[in-house]
Every structure is written in structure tokens, then in C-alpha cells.
Batch of 3 targets.
Target 1
Amino acid sequence: MTRVSVVIPALNDSVMLAACLRALDRQTRPADEIIVVDNGSTDDTAAVAQARGARVVLEPVRGIFPATAAGFDAAAFDILARLDADSVPPPDWIERVVSAFETDDHLDLLSGPGDFYGSTPLVHWAAEHVYIGGYVWFVGWILGHDILFGSNLALRATAWGRLRLTVHRSMREIHDDLDLTIHVEPDMGVRFDRTLRVGVSARPFESLPGLWRRLSWAFTTLGLNQRERSLLSRRAERRRHERAAVN
């Protein structure tokens, strides 16, 4: 039987975390464990998590990737599902994640988009179609495989075991989902399912400083990895592996 750990990194997000945990309580297929990674909160994030039955892991090194990596390392089960504290998954989210992995032995990493809430329709549209849409197209084209979106992703524990020491897990000002996407191995199956959706807060896109921070982190993540190894060479390696598998 496939078992699922849900990992939620959080920093001073008690109100939104409570909504996320309520959504997880309503799942048609409950999580086998929920891990909230407290990344140094000064509010009642940890208390909210514990009150709803989540296991709290403390990660003092600030940053979304250090917190996410700590949660993945602490997880006990077969599938590691990842949400942000402001993610609101629909009732069948875990059920669909489990079904995807159980019906496809070659699937290692799974992701989907977000339905943005909490701002204007224009901001929601731009966040989904320009920011996320551009990310899906551009990075997918460069690497030759689907991308991962951090507010809505899952991977096999075995995949994390292979990737955990190659990604830049200790760095703060990078996007963990983009870095993880770049480090997907050529033989790993990765799928971006546009129908696997969760609610996601649009708050990072409501101000120019918030938007610029996200863009600067994207450029930093791409530049860091490009300097270490050409992104196009990663694409070429995946293509060689795909051709070898067919032959």
C-alpha cells in the first residue's frame, strides 16, 4: 500500500497554514503523516500545526529550500507531497497523487499548477498565464522535460534519495522547485499535470518588490546552475537517454 507524507514549509503563516490543514482534513484519501517545517516562526505556526495533528520539524536555517529539504528528510513514507502554507488542495488532491504514482511505475516526480486567490482577477491571470505559464514553457523548453511547481508537487521518496545531495538545498535565495526541476536525472519520469490544481495565494504578485524578488530568485537559480553545468547539456543528456530507451 502506497503511503504519503505531506510536507509544508512555513514561516509566520499560522492563519493560512490553518486553512491548508483544514483542506487536508477533508481529503478523500487522508495523508499518512503531515509534517510542518517551522522555519523560525515568531507567531503560533507550530501551535496551529500541532493542534491539527501535524508533526512539527524545526529548521533554523532560513529559506524555502532548507525548510523543504528538512521536511523531505524527515518524511517516513513512499510519496513526498509538497504544499506551501498558503496552498489549499481540493478534496481529491492526495487521492489523485497516489493514483498517478500507482498507475505509472516510471513516474518519479509529479506537479501541477495553481488557481490563484486573494487578489484581483488581473493579478490572478498574470500570475497563472505570464509568470507560471512562462516558467512552464521556458524552463520546459530548455531542459526538455516538464517542470515542478513548489506549491503543488509530489515525488517518490526514492527520487528524493537520489537528488537530495545534488540540489542546492542549503541556499536561501533560490527557487527550490526550479532547482529541483533542473536536477531531475535523465532516467527520471516527470509530469506536469495541468488538471492537478490547488489554490495558491497571489500575495507575492501584489507588489513590484514581491514580484521582483521572485524574478531575481529565478535568475539566481538559473545562473547558478548554468555556471555549474550547461542547462542545454542536461537537455542533450535526457534526449540521448530517451533515444537509447527506444532503441
Note: The first helix runs from residue 14 to 25.
Target 2
Amino acid sequence: IKGLRDKKFFAFTLAEVLITLGIIGVVAAMTMPVLTASSRKSEYSARLKKYYSSMQQAVLLYNQDHNMLPEDWPIPDDGYDSLKSFWDTRFAPYFSNVISIEKDNEDDPLIRLADGTSLKIRKGAVVDIIYDVNGDKAPNQDGKDRYWFLLNKGTFSAYGWTEDIGTVHVPDEDEEPYTKDMNDRDNVLRLCKKSGSFCSQLLLLDGWEFKNDYPNKI
């Protein structure tokens, strides 16, 4: 048809298409890890907020239901049976999402929750409660996916055990000494870098958000 023969048609060559797809692939490869890390941080932040609120509420409700003051809480004995009984009595009635309780490899109670998270209870000077935001999934490292909390009698808090500062937690030679001020963010940030157990306190100060200077890769 004469009218069609007079028109010019424009199209991409195969080489141009392949180059464009290659550029898109490179950009995607560069941006996907950033997007994935951002999504993971948001997920971890939401889970930590929920967990912290749930534990605080459980302590409050137990005190109300039993007319008890925080300082009247006993500290349980070491051992699986004692710690499991402590959980069953003080916390289990206020958690509806527990799917199992079992011994971990250190004979401490490991509580698995329906959202894929878990927590373990162990006896130190007080009660340590270690919350894992992704359960058994790697890396299972303090400050990365595992966060420490303390139950000192009837007071639940982020990990801020200061008794070991200056002995167990010693700064490097070129660092200033750590202080016992758990509200000093710079101090807690340095402690988090030294020991992942303090990272829950850093996140608490930051509203459970992972700031740009958070020292561990998430």
C-alpha cells in the first residue's frame, strides 16, 4: 500500500535492548541489598517493639492480678525446671502465641512464639531473657538478630547490666573508659560495639529504630 510505504518506522535494535536490560540488571543488583536490609530493619524494629511492650504488660498485669510490688518478685533458682516454672507462673498466662517450650542446648527454657521469634530464659545475677527476632535462622548473634533483656525481680528492662563495666567490658587502649550511665547514648553505642548484649539498650534509646550509626549489619 502506497501510504504505508511512505512512512518511516523506528524501533530499538537488539543490541540496544540488551544494553538497556544489562543496565537495569546492574542497578537492581546494587539496590536490592539496600532495600532488603531496610525491610529487615523495619521488620526487626516492629518485632522488638511488640516484644518489649508485651513483656512490660505481662509484668504489669501479673502485679495487678496478684497485688504484688516489683520488689516482691523472687529471683528463681538456676535450672530448667525452676526457670520454666517461673515462666509458666509469671508470663505464660499473658502470652497466647506460645507454640512450644523446650530445653535448648544449655538446658535453659526456649520459648517459641507463633510469629517465628523465640526467647530463652537463663539465670545470671538476675534473670536474662534473650529474644531472637528470627528464631533459629542465622546468624544467631548478639546485636544482630538476638537481643538481651533483664528481669531484675519484677522490673523488666533492656540489657544495662553495669556491674561488669571496667572488668569484663574493658575499652581498648585508645578509648575513654566506659561509664555506667545507660542513658548516655554515646557511651551505650560504644558498649554495643564492644558487646552485643548492650545493643538492646541502644535500640531502646533510639525508639527501637536502627539508626545509621548502629554498629552491627542487619
Note: The chain has a mean pLDDT of 90.
Target 3
Amino acid sequence: MRQILIFMLLSTMGFSQNCENSILDEILQNNDVNQYFQIALSLNIDELSYLNTCKSDASFTVFVPGNDVPNESVSTLLSLSSDANLIDYIEYYIYAGEVNSSNFIIGPLNMMDGNNSNIIVTASDDDIDITINQASITIQDICACNGVIHVINDLIWAPSSVNLHNYNNTIELYPNPIKH
């Protein structure tokens, strides 16, 4: 209950464009971030305390699903929390270090959960597309006092985790009344 109250309180505050707020505050208040992902973060506020302080020299980069990611996909992630530790999924979105549009690292990033994600930059005549594990970065460089946030257009999955697209296709109910 306390975490929900904190989330509701944070969502009523305005968010800053001058890098004064922590990464966690910026994500929870940003209207471009998928609301179900915001809820997932608020449910893990204690485990993410390192993203909620401006008093450390550590900086982080967080890739967050935006509003163009279907709510059904992210809400399914929340339903998995009873089967697995939700923080294990969330930490795959966090990189310990600051990566912004002026210094994108092409290649693997070792995320907080210990798995690697892959940044790819492709350029055409009139467009540059930056992706992380095939999810395009749609909004870059939302600054915070302890790092930077990038909004992406899909969920990303660690190699060792269950992809929800696969998860939804493998569910079987027993007993199956169709089989005799």
C-alpha cells in the first residue's frame, strides 16, 4: 500500500527538465513512459533505491517502454511477478553508466541483471535509427541528476528470461476439455 501511495504522490508532482530529479522520479512522472511499466517500477521501489538518489557519484542509463508499447504486453509482465521476481526483469532495462546520444556504445552493454543487450545504430540518407535488442529508441536523453533515460518502442528481453510472446503461446490449461 505504501508503494502505491508513493507512486500516486510522485505522479501528481511536475517533472523537471533541468536534471534535478532522480531517474526513478523522472520515469514515474513522465507521460511518455508506459503506465504499466511505471507501476512495475513503483512496486519495486525499495530494490531500485539506487535510481532514486542524487547524492551518489554513480550514474545509470535506463531504457523504458513508451506509450506505443501495448499495455497488454506490459501488464502481462506484471502478472508474471507472481511466478518470478519482477526486479529480475526490470534490471535488464538498466545499465550502470551513462550512455546518451553523444556517446552511444555500439555493441553489447552489460545490464544490471548481468546479461548483455545490444545497441545497434543504423543510418540511411535521412534517418538514424538506434535500437537496443531490436527495440527502437524513440525519445533520447531525458536527463536526471543520476543519469539518463531513453524511451523505447518495445519490451526488451534478457537471453535467459522468458519472452512474453513465447510465454503466451505456451500456456496450456489442464484438464483440457477438448482432448478426450
Note: The chain has a mean pLDDT of 79.
